[in-house]
Amino acid sequence: MAIYWCTDVIPMAVTSLMPALLFPLMKIMDSKQVCIQYMTDTNMLFVGSMVVAVAVERWNLHKRIALKTLLVVGAKPARLMVGFMGVTAFLSMWISNTATTAMMVPILEAMMQQMEATMKLKDAPMSNMELEEKGRASELLSPGHSSSRWKQDSRTSERAMSQEQKYMYKAMNLCVCYSASIGGTATLTGTGPNVVLLGQMQELFPHSKDVLNFASWFAFAFPNMVLMLSLAWLWLYLFYMRSGQTIIRGRRKESEAAAYIVLEEEYRKLGALSFPEISVMVCFGLLILLWFTRDPGYMEGWLSIAWKDEGKKYCTDATAAVFVALLLFILPSKKPRFNIFSKAEAHKKTPFYPPALLDWKGTQQKIPWGIVLLLGGGFALAKGCEVSGLSEWMGKQMEPLKKLSPTLITLVLSILVSSCTECTSNVATTTLFLPIFASMARSIGINPLLVMIPCTLSASFAFMLPVATPPNAIMFSYGHIQVSDMVKSGIIMNLIGLTSVLVSVNTWGRHIFGLSEFPDWANATST
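Below the sequence we write its predicted structure tokens.
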């Protein structure tokens, strides 16, 4: 399966079905035990969150949030980059990074084209006036010397502005695709590797007592995301945009005004906040509230009201996700009009209950069912490794690593994962590596999360190649970035990611997840 996933000989979703066929034939697990792994609690959490994401996209709520944020931030290049990075990362926390990038890049492209057109219009009359003035001066001075000097200055100015525009295009495009990958790491449902981590924890360590849930992960990963975004902004600004600060500052005001006009026009096209947008926003806020207040740890959550009995928890984050997903298929997309007693012909033709916010035909086309199968195949593979004893055997082979520092082990494994994810799917990468790393951590006596969390985050650090992740491919398709540009900036981005993760894990991460100690739940295995 690892070879098939890496080489993509057949579709990855089809490869994920192999355990359902091979494990029963090889007498490793019976068919019922294998098939149940394909629709676990984690899979339902993923499906429920994807339904909510589809609703946000369906009613353009994500576009309204993006444009409003950019208008508030302003159109200065440095602020504009902050605005694009911040809003892209925020949206990527809740909807897929592919959809976020596909929505943000056209807005960026329209804005940049308008800025470029405005600068060209301003340059044209200036050039004519300068030509007349230089022509008069050439009659008094040496004609050849004056003319050649003016032409050289003009060409230098044009080259400088052209270079500045190219750098700004590169900086703005890269900041969007990088932010889409970084933003997804902040929530458990934001990207595939995080969902894999949650599922593997529940499968490999069923007695972990809900140590990893939406609230605990957000408390750890959100500050890490902010740290990464700050360092990424600083790197892209210094590398691409700093050199252009001294080039013809006067023309910046016109280009900034043009950018702001484009954003205002796009926001005006959306019209006033509509009833379905408000409904989706309420459902979206309700889901986040339910996730954070289910069982926060520092206080009693709504779980303890009636769904917690003698240590058994009946509701999980998946329960909240499915509840809100069902609401989206029930709540109306228009204000209901109670025209039962109206005799007007138009009212009689109007349906008593308007269509719902979502319909199944459109929704099921946008849910990535291949990822659901990929998650299930990974969980089945992990269960098979455990039942067959392969996990225990691999763990014993890695016992010599006990002599090394846990920080060094984490660093080496994170580099390994971030290198592999440049060429393979990040979900497939985490699915393959996490069970091995969990067995290794158990055998050498360190907290499994100390290794699994950094490696999960590292799987999202695909910054160097266009094919590494869909946001990179979307951005690359617009033609402003070369592969060499991505490699040069991506190397530093990988270093920024690895540094941020190591800092996060060894500071507030140790307190949130108790990473300094070997937990009791790591000794227990599912039966």
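Residues 125-161, 244-250 have pLDDT under 50 and may be disordered.
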